[in-house]
Each structure stands twice: as C-alpha cells, then as structure tokens.
C-alpha cells in the first residue's frame, strides 16, 4: 500500500497522454503568464477506481459535472482563462445546455423534393446563438483549455502536472477543486489482471488514497488561491469537516455542501468566517444557478487576495 503521495505516484505509471496534455498546459500558461488575465483550474466530475487491470468493473464517485462546468462559464464571464479538467463524458461548459434530447428538440427537419436540410427552430435561435457566441469567443481568445481523466490515477497525475505548470502564474491563479475524488483504491499488485470471475462472492479490500491537497497547497502551487469542496451527507459533520480541512492544509477556502441539497445551498468556510449562499425557491424556479453566486464570491475573494499580496511585496 502507498503510505504517502510520493509512493502513490511511484507505484502508478503515468498515463500515456500525459506528455501531450503537459504541452497544452505549457502553451496555455505561456499565453497568460505576462498579461492581466487571471487563470483558474477547475476540476470536475468523479474519478473511478478500477477493480481489474483489464477493466470491466470500477467503483465510481458521485458527480455529474454540473458544478464544474457551470462554474467554468461564470469564470469566463468574469474574464478568467480556464483550464477545465473533467471526467470523460461528464458535463462540459456550453454543451451542457443541450444534453440528451434537448438539442434534437431544438432542430427542424425539412424534407423537400430538392433535398433535406436541418435548421434551428426560430424560438431556439437566441439561446443557441448566445451559448455559441460565448463558446467561440472563449476558444478564439485562448481562454478555455479542456483536459480529461477517468481513473483516480489519471486525475492525480494530470492534477500534479497542471499545478506544476500553472505555478509560475502565482497569485493570479485559482485552483477550484470541485471534482469528487476517490478516497479508496486497490493497489495495482492486488488488482486482478482479468475480469473477476463471477463464480463466488468476493471480498474486496480498499486502501486509502493519500490526500493530495497536502502537497498541492504546500509544494506545487504555494502562491495560488486554492479552493476545495467538501461533500457530506450528515449535516452535523459538514462545517467541522470543512474547518478540519482548512486547518490541516492551510488553503484559502472550503465550499461545504450536502448531497441532499448541493444545487441550492453551499457554505463558504474560511479561516475567519463561514457564510451561506442559498437560492430562494423563486431563483430556482426561474433557472438561476448557484454557481453564478459562488463564482462571484470567489472572484471577489481572489481580488482581495491579490491586493493583499501586492500590498505586502
Ligand atoms: O458535479 P455535480 O453533480 O454538480 O456535484 C458537485 C459536487 C457535489 C461533487 C461538488 O460540489 C463537491 O462537493 N466536490 C467535492 C467532493 C469530494 O470529493 O469531497 P471529499 O470530501 O471527498 O474531498 C474533499 C477535498 O479533498 C476535495 O476538494 C478533493 O479535491 C480533495 N481530495 C480528495 C481525495 C483525495 N485523495 N485527495 C484530495 O485532495
């Protein structure tokens, strides 16, 4: 079992696409290093833990990617450049508005003797145009880099590389760790190579994944503004757990949320204070998203953090 994060990395080979992702991250960082644009790394979606090397089964973590993908759009609205690090097939910024049958329902099929054409129904043009305009603009201005992971190993390798490459941005950079990261895993030498036979009941022993916030805050991005999330199901534990994380890792902010109502209510916990952001029934009814308010809060806090740092230097 890996007893710490260094051992964890040394016992899991780096993913095949890591070098390519590192090149993309280097280009992105170089583009934003000297200008005024602020940068945020958003992690989003759940990581998996495979049960077999040739994986048929895996343990998954709860997360559709709504928090991360919606927040990415609001950070872009505030002028930030975003690295969106997400689980394969989880929600992505912009395209999230057109998932499932929604997109097909926005189209008209026109068949005449001269041929077939597909158009957007007139009432949907404003919505599609609005989303498309923002998406194209983010790409054209080099403000959106999307990278993906599936397993907790791919996530941890990519996260470390991303942090190390973004580190020169110093206080201009936010880490917004909304992904739901596996806490337990099966060490590679204990994992079955092939599909586990379904001939008898199985007992699976899971080891603890080292908490990666520790090296992240103290070693990889010591000057960045780090925001982590805390998901609980027992409300009596939520704020204590968030404070525990702040005291242990010494980062800037924990956004605490309950599985039961995380789309409507979060508590922002800092070393000094804690306060609630909650959507009213009316705000939910008209489709407002809590991420708009979360991101506005983070952007304000980031501004204070940068002012404080430049006042000290
Ligand atoms: O995507 P949605 O469906 O919208 O859901 C959003 C969400 C509920 C997943 C999101 O709001 C959220 O709470 N994300 C964090 C969930 C989580 O993993 O909580 P945790 O208590 O297991 O971890 C707390 C923090 O420790 C996380 O910021 C994580 O980055 C970090 N961590 C976790 C495991 C690990 N081995 N190392 C870590 O550093």
From TrEMBL:
Single GO term (MF): catalytic activity
Domain DNA/pantothenate metabolism flavoprotein C-terminal: 168-271
Keyword Ligase attributed: yes
SUPFAM superfamilies named among the record's database cross-references: CoaB-like
Pfam families xref list: DFP
Keywords: Ligase
Similarity comment: Belongs to the PPC synthetase family.
The protein, known as: Phosphopantothenate--cysteine ligase
Organism: Neodiprion lecontei (Redheaded pine sawfly)
Lineage: Eukaryota, Metazoa, Ecdysozoa, Arthropoda, Hexapoda
């Amino acid at each position: 079992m890996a007893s710490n994060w260094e051992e964890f990395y040394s016992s899991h080979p780096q993913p095949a696409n890591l070098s390519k992702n590192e090149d993309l991250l280097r280009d992105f960082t170089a583009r934003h290093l000297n200008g005024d644009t602020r940068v945020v790394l958003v992690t989003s979606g759940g990581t998996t833990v495979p049960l077999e090397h040739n994986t048929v089964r895996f343990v998954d973590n709860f997360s559709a990617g709504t928090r991360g993908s919606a927040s990415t759009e609001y950070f872009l609205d505030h002028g930030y450049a975003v690295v969106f690090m997400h689980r394969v097939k989880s929600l992505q910024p912009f395209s999230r508005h057109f998932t499932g049958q929604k997109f097909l329902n926005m189209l008209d099929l026109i068949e005449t003797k001269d041929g077939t054409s597909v158009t957007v129904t007139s009432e949907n043009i404003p919505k599609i145009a609005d989303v498309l305009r923002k998406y194209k603009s983010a790409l054209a201005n080099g403000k959106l880099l999307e990278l993906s992971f599936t397993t907790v190993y791919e996530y941890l390798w990519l996260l470390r590389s991303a942090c190390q490459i973004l580190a020169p941005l110093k206080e201009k950079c936010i880490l917004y760790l909304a992904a739901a990261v596996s806490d337990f895993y099966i060490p590679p030498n204990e994992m079955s190579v092939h599909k586990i036979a379904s001939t008898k009941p199985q007992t699976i022993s899971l080891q603890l994944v080292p908490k990666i916030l520790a090296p992240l805050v103290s070693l990889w991005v010591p000057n960045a503004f780090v925001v982590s999330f805390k998901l609980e199901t027992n409300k009596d534990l939520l704020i204590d757990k968030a404070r525990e994380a702040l005291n242990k890792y010494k980062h800037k902010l924990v956004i605490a949320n309950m599985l039961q109502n995380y789309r409507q209510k979060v508590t922002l916990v800092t070393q000094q204070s804690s306060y609630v952001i909650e959507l009213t029934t009316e705000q939910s009814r008209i489709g407002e998203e809590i991420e708009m308010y979360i991101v506005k809060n983070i952007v304000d806090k980031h501004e204070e953090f940068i002012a404080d740092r430049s006042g000290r230097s």
